């Protein structure tokens, strides 16, 4: 049986994303593992040693009680969507969220990680949004990020962002397999600079991959990559966007905002991020 990992903080954003996890589990015959990761408080005041055990015990008990109260809510969401038959298990973990997601993804051979993401408030990222984009960048799994404004709709049209490079092909094949599950149409979009030279083009190699598949290739010239993608989504009524997440070095991560991160804060459809 396939496995879906669902990290949650029990917020409305997470509960909304849980519907996508359930629908995906139903479509691919998967079980869901929900996980809530918490950290113990940093106590910095004087003479803390004699109280440390008590502080930690209270914190762990509080997290357990909250988790115990929230689990039935997830079960109710499943039943309200006629998905009560989905097998769901739960994990309450002390540790660092990203590290624990990486660890359980490897140990349990997770097929998909599904989680909610919040948009940006002005120039400041919200916590869950920051976490979701870190997971997309750092966890080597297929990540399905569900924006807070996204309400579930059947997956009928998927947009795959690509430069038609050979290193994108493995991710493209995964997107094709995902589209087949839902019998969805796939649009592939490349955005290139206005002065782009089409002479050295890999499109011919890609055409051989899509015989007998419901896939359309597009290339649009322009400088505003994000704007072009957002306009394409609206024009073609796309209800899921997919992309290959490239490994970046430290300085690139420090000085550039990845496309997946920008889109996570500006669109209201799911993002399927496939790590190399």
Automatic annotation (TrEMBL):
Q: What name does the UniProt record give this protein? A: Universal stress protein
Family named by the database record: Belongs to the universal stress protein A family.
InterPro entries, A to Z: Rossmann-like_a/b/a_fold, Universal_stress_UspA, UspA
Record-linked Pfam families = Usp
Where is each UspA domain found? 1-141
Gene3D superfamilies registered for this protein in UniProt: HUPs
